[in-house]
Each structure stands twice: as structure tokens, then as C-alpha cells.
Amino acid sequence: MLKNLKLGMKLNLILLITFLVIVTVNGFILSTVLQSNAEQEVTRKALVLIETMDSVRDYTRLQVNPELADRLEQEDQFLPQTVPGYSAREVFEYLRQRDAYTDFFYKEATLNPTNLRDKADKFETAIVEDFRKNPDLKTKSGFRSLQSGNLYYVARPIEIKKESCLRCHSTPEAAPKSQLATYGRENGFGWQLNEIVGAQTISVPAGRVLADARKLQVLVIGILTIGFLIAVIALNLFLKFAVVSPIKEMAVWSREVSTGNLNTDYEHQANDEIGVLASSVNRLKVSMEMAMNMLKKNPPA
Description:
Layout lengths: L6 H62 L2 H4 L9 H12 L9 E6 L11 H12 L6 E7 L2 E11 L17 H7 L12 E10 H53 L14 H25 L4
Antiparallel strand pairs: 1-4, 2-3, 3-4
InterPro entries: HAMP_dom, Tll0287-like_dom
Protein name: HAMP domain-containing protein
Keywords: Membrane, Transmembrane, Transmembrane helix
């Protein structure tokens, strides 16, 4: 079958096979690299958000809490606005109202929280335990599966670094009365200084991470495809005008010579391989012409 194909078809077939191999191999590599880059970009943005939430926590602890601390003993209901974690969570919910952050979720997953809204689930508990076992581990990220879909998460440990944090979390006796009235005496106590009690987690649907990677992958493969098509067109034009057309002309000229028309030479201006071939057939024509003249002068007996 290949013997019957013309040069152009053979060239295009070779180019197509080469292109498919390159796209397959590079597509796999590209997919891995782009997904890694997409994860890094989401991680970078998540870490910036966590740093922002830390600033909210510090503001609440240093400025809001001192202003409302006395009311914690006087009010019947606890004022959650005095809790840094509560402020961070509320601020993030306002941030999620912006289109760029709608898909982001923030939680301060805690092993023994005062507010059960912050209770760590089984997966989050494993993350917190990893931080507790490895104090040098500052960031953890990856994918987790939920019934609602897969999530990509970024987590950082929550460590008790200030004595002031223990007012509400050391013992029920030391806690404000309003806290006990609102949340009871069972949860959120027994914390210790320098203890890792939870993890700040920011998560985003995994589909968003993978979608960003796929968009870039499709874009790059699209550019490669356009480049391949341009190369195929350019090579086919070159093959047609620099190789195929001169060979066809030479074939027509050779047929004329074979029928006895020895009055013309085949002309090819370029000094490339086709030019060398043209010189050779011209010499062959001259040799044939000399042989014909010799036969005319000395016909066989």
C-alpha cells in the first residue's frame, strides 16, 4: 500500500504519526505539569487568604475583645464577636459574596471546639493529628472526597500562642459566665499553651482546579495543532514547488528525449539535489545523442 502512495501523502502520513506521538507524550506530561501549577496557584491564593484571616483574628484579639471583655460577665448570652475564630469565619463569609471567591470555603476545624460548628470531622481530625505529630509541618494540602464532590484543600495548624486564649478554654471555672450559659461546660476546655488544637482549612471544588489545568492544556495543544497545520502546509508547498513539480517536468522531458527529441536540455536554476539530478540527465542525454550519432555513422553490419 505504501508503495502506491505519492511523496506528499507519505510525508503527511509521517508528519501525522509524529504529531500524534508528540501530542500523546507531551499531553500526558503537560497535564501533570499544568495540574501541579494549578494546585500551586490555588495554594498560593489560599495561603494569602489564611494570612488575611490571621490578621482578622489578631484584630479581634487585640482590639475587639478588650472592648467587650467586661460584657462577657454581664450579658446573659455570650458575645461571639469577641472570639477571633468567629470573626475570621464571618469575614470570610462576606468575602465569599464576591464572584472570585464564591467557591472558596473556610473552616477552623478544631478537635474540641466551644462552638460545635467548628468541630473537625474525621478527615479534618487526621489533618490536625498530622500537625500535632509533626510540629515542623506548617502547611498541608491535597484532595478529599465528599458526597457532594471532591475538594482541594489547604490547611495550616492552629496553635495556642497567647495566654489570653486560655481564658475561655482552660477550665469551666475560668470561663466567662455568658459562655457557660450559651455553650455549657462540656466543650472547648482543657486547651494548653503551645498546643495545636485545630487547623485553618480553605477548600475549593477540585473541578475548579482541574478545569483551570484543562483550559491551559487545551490552549497549548490548540497552539501545537495550529503550528502543526502551518508546518504541514509549508512543507507541502515546498515539496510541491521544490521537488514534485521539477520531477514531473523532468519526467515529461525524459519522455520527449526517449522519443527522439534531443534538441532541448532540462533547465533547473537551483544548485540543490534536483539541480545535480538535472545535470546528470542532461549528461545522459548528451551521451545518448553521441551514441546515436555513432550508430548513424557506423551502422551495424
